Amino acid sequence: MLINKSRFITWLRPVSSREQAMAIIDEARALYPDASHHCYAYLLGSPASAQAAMNDDGEPSGTAGKPIFNVIQHKGMSDVLVVVIRYFGGVKLGAGGLVRAYAAAAETVLAEVERVESVPQCTCQLALDFPLEQRLRHWAEQNGAAVLDVQYSQRVAMTLRCPTQSLADLESLCAAEHITLATQ
User: Fold this and answer.
1) pLDDT surpassing 90 at residue 36
2) 160 strand-pairing partners
3) Which residues partner with 85 through β-bridges?
4) CB 44 within 8 A of CB 24
5) What mean pLDDT is predicted for residues 167-171?
6) Whether residue 47 has pLDDT greater than 70
7) Average pLDDT for 79-92
8) Cα–Cα distance between 68 and 161 in angstroms, integer?
């Protein structure tokens, strides 16, 4: 995207942690080391317990990271990082121009992406008797859980990735069938 001779390159990445976001920002800096600015914003988690950060990377305060963040919020997205890389073109944009440029860069990339609903998941370790394995596999299939691993010894050791909203139902099943359950 070109605005008054300045070139803007925008990255959008899914992230689940601050560390992951910072690694991607470092990657952008390494890939575009001669860029004037590497501004970003990210929002992690649900709106009720969100973790967020933004950075203007040398642009005047509030003219880059905040507009990017506002677009993410306005779109109702979370667990995303937007990095806008700017190559200065020799024409100063002014504070208002910078705000509009960074917001437009974020808006453009977020408008192009297909949104995917995120379903909170947890990992469950189960220990069960052999006759219960098929019943548990059926429960997993019916409840959107995925069998990640199965080990056989004196009992079946199964690892599931389970939607958090189905965890209470799984706990009830485990209690009724004497299945040992541990969650992570």
Assistant:
1) yes
2) 124, 147
3) 9, 38
4) no
5) 92
6) no
7) 92
8) 33
**Domain extent at residue 152:** 121-183
- Please state the rounded mean pLDDT for residues 29-35: 96
Q: Residue 65 is part of a domain; what is its CATH number?
A: 3.30.230.30
DSSP string, the chain: -EETTEEEEEEEEE-SSHHHHHHHHHHHHHHSTT-SEEEEEEEES-GGG-EEEEE-TTSSTTSSHHHHHHHHHHTT--SEEEEEEEE--S---HHHHHHHHHHHHHHHHHHHSPP-----EEEEEEEE-GGGHHHHHHHHHHTT-EEEEEEESSSEEEEEEEEGGGHHHHHHHHHHHT-EEEE-
Model confidence at 22, pLDDT cuts 50, 70, 90, reads very high
Same domain, 70 and 92: yes
CATH number of the structural domain spanning residue 130: 3.30.70.260
pTM (two decimals): 0.66
180: how many CB neighbours lie within 10 A of its CB? 11
Q: Write out pLDDT tens, residues 129-161.
A: 999 999 999 999 999 899 999 999 999 999 999
CA distance 59 to 61: 6
CA dihedral 44, 47, 50, 54 (to 10 degrees): 70
Separation of alpha carbons 97 and 4, rounded Å: 10
Pick from 70, 39, 68, 42: which is nearest to 55 by CA? 39
